[in-house]
Amino acid sequence: MRRHVLLLLALLLLIVLLFVLNLLLGTVRIPVGSVCRILMGSDAEGEIWTNIIWSSRVPQALTALVAGAGLAVSGLQMQTVFRNPLAGPSVLGISNGASLGVAFVVLLSGSLGGVALSRLGYMGDVAMSVAAIIGALAVMGLILWVASRVRGNVTLLIIGVMIGYLATAIIGVLKFFSAEEDIKAYVVWGLGSFARVSGDQMVLFVVLMAVLLPLSMLTVKAMNVYLLGDAYARNLGLDIRRARFMLIVCSGTLVAIVTAYCGPIMFIGLAVPHLARALFRSSDHRVLMPATMLAGAALALLCNLIARMPGFEGALPVNSVTALVGAPVIASVLFRRRQSAE
Q1: What are the pLDDT digits (tens) for 298-315?
Q2: For 171, which of 22, 103, 260, 340 could close a Cys bridge (C-beta 3.0–4.6 Å)?
Q3: pTM for the full predicted model
Q4: How many whole angstroms separate alpha carbon 43 and alpha carbon 37?
C-alpha cells in the first residue's frame, strides 16, 4: 500500500511538471519569469504573450489533463466489462457515432446550405461539438437498448463493432458527395486536438469532466466484483446486467464528451490501463482507478507537449503522437499474452 501511495504522489508531481512545461514551451519562447507574472495577473507583460498564455496554453493544458483522465478511465471500464485487454473507449462505436454526427453537420453544410461550416468560426465549432454529442449519445442509447436485451458480452461487443462499421460507411458516402473544403474541415476535426477548446467551452468541458470523473469512482466496487466472473459475482449479490449497464453509461458519457470537444483521440484509453497495471502491479480497481486517471492525464499532457514542441511549424496532430506512444504498449500486451499462452 505504501508503494502505491508513493507512486500516486509521483504521478501527481509528474502532472504538475508536465502542466508547467505545457505553459512554458511552444513555438513562441516566453521566459519563465514572464509566464509567472502573467499567471499572477501582472499587466507589465506584452499583450501578445498574455494572450498566448491565457487563450492558448492554459486552455490546452487543462483540456489535455481532463480529457486524458476521462479517456483512460473509460478504457479501464470497457476492458473490465468485456474482460478483454484490447477493448477501448471506441469499442462500442460511440466515437464513431460522434464522428457521424459531425459528418452530418460538416459535410452536408456546404451541400445543403451553400456555406461551409469551417468558415463560421466560433459558431461552427459549437455546432460541431453539439453534433458530436448528439451522435455519440444516439449510439450510446442504441447500445444500452441492445445491452438490456443481450446477455453475452461477446454479442454486445460484435454489435458495437458493427455499429462502428455502419457509421464509417455512412461517413464515406457523405464524403463522396461533399465539397472538398467540407471534407478538409472534417478530416482536420478527425485528427484530434486539445487546442480546439477555449473560452466558455473550455470552462464547461472542465466542469463536466470534474463532475463525471469523481462519479466514475463509484463504479470501483462493481468492477472488482465483475472481474470474479458472472457466477461468483451473482453469489455476492451483484446484478450483472445492471452493473454492465452502469459501466457502459459511465464509459460512454466520458467518451462522448471528450470526442465532442477534442475530436477522436486514439490509443490513450486503450494503452493507459495497461501502463497503470504494469506500474502498480495490481488488479484492484481501488488502486487502478485513480492510477489510470492520473496516468491518462500525464500521458495526454506529454502528447500535447510533444505536438507543440519548439521547431514544429504550428502543431502536430495529437493522434499522430498518441499512436507513437500507444502502439508499442498494445504490441507488448499482445506479445506477453502470446508468451503466457505458450
Answers
A1: 999 998 888 877 555 456
A2: 103
A3: 0.86
A4: 8
